[in-house]
Amino acid sequence: MARFTTLVSLLAAASTFFTGSNAAAIEKRASLTQVTGFSSSNPSNTKMYIYVPAKLATKPAVIVAIHFCTGTAQAYYSQTPYAGYADKYGLIVIFPESPYSGTCWDVSSTNALKHDGSGSDSKAIADMVTYTLSKYSGDASKVFVTGSSSGAMMTNVMAATYPELFAAATAYSGVPAGCFASSSGAADAWNSQCAQGQSIKSAAQWTTIVQNMYQGYSGARPRFQVKHGSIDSTLLPQNYNETVKEWTGVFGYNAATPAKRQFNFPKSGYTTDSWGIDSANPLGKVQGVYAVNVGHTVPVDGDQDLQWFQLGPYATTGSATTTKAASSTVAATSATRVATSAPATTTKVATTTSAAATTSAASGGSGASQWSQCGGISWTGATSCASPYKCVVVNPYYSQCQ
Length: 402
Ligand SMILES: *[C@@H]1O[C@H](CO)[C@@H](O)[C@H](O)[C@H]1NC(C)=O
Hints:
The protein has about 400 residues and is an alpha/beta fold. The chain folds into two domains: about 5-340, Alpha/Beta hydrolase fold, catalytic domain (Rossmann fold, 3-Layer(aba) Sandwich), CATH 3.40.50; about 355-400, no CATH class. Helix content is about 30%, strand content about 15%. The protein has helices at about 1-15, 20-25, 75-80, 80-90, 120-135, 150-160, 190-195, 205-215, 240-250, 300-310, 325-340, 355-365; strands at about 35, 45-50, 60-65, 90-95, 145-150, 170, 225-230, 260-265, 270-275, 285-290, 375, 390-395, 400. Bound molecules: 2-acetamido-2-deoxy-beta-D-glucopyranose. 2-acetamido-2-deoxy-beta-D-glucopyranose binds near residues 240, 241 and 290.
């Protein structure tokens, strides 16, 4: 019954899910195509759809975009800006489709919640990625995953079960990986306790849950961005706090002390917290975007996703096609930074600057500290950096002391 009610409320909300201004404006030149035979074993019959633009970049990046309950690959393709970005930047978008009635994703079964769990949706999606990288000579270091609601739950699960595949993830209004686990191990089960925000665990407990989903894995993990509305009555907002605890825990940061807090960013009423900011990860390795007075779900913000994924105008290598003068500057600056800095590490930033610290740096007149924000659209804090750091434009919304 709880599930039925949820599906009805999701259906009712579906027409207002996406307000991305880019979605309608961009003309799509190729078409969404179903792919079969992408996996040697797909007993759940999870479907794969793909959008390959007419003009593909060399070594294209890949975005996996996962629909909500009652949604389809076609719906998410139409309602999000990702296929438009494929045309614009030559990347590929995979739109998986759930095989279950009501099209929620299986984020509850034993096999869905572990690496290489045969017959599960998560394994099928991983196979879609591997197939696409191979068929189109994709860039394995630029694979990203995003989704809304049930798709955001699956985004959490993919980041936990296949960390080796993804560089970054963005989850719009989901729950932590493992939160929907079914005590009986059943597939596609609803978990009211989690949905209601009553599955409260410590960062250490969530971290163990994630680590157990891929036992023995010690490689890199995708940067993780959590977005959630403060008045979400489908997946209660406590799920924001739990998801933040999970991923800050996995990376070894303290959820209570973000390195940076931005009010009214990226929109009025939103608060953005970032952890793990360093030269290779100017926006951090974990970011939480808490959308005050937003319900279920937070609308897809394609431009912010490109920033988080470091794609298109926000690419960190010189290879991206840039169309704007400002973007060229960003790409050039970033390329220099990458070339001269050490590779990304999972080392924590030794000193974290809270919102208070940033403010005092601003009023103290000595300039903001290393890795602090020093400019960008809507930025009202310090615009100079403490010596010897320089204020570097990362993108139109964010400049940083480096
Ligand atoms: C959850 O996070 C939000 C946004 O940071 C915060 O306002 C709220 O106090 C947190 N809730 C709990 C119970 O920690």
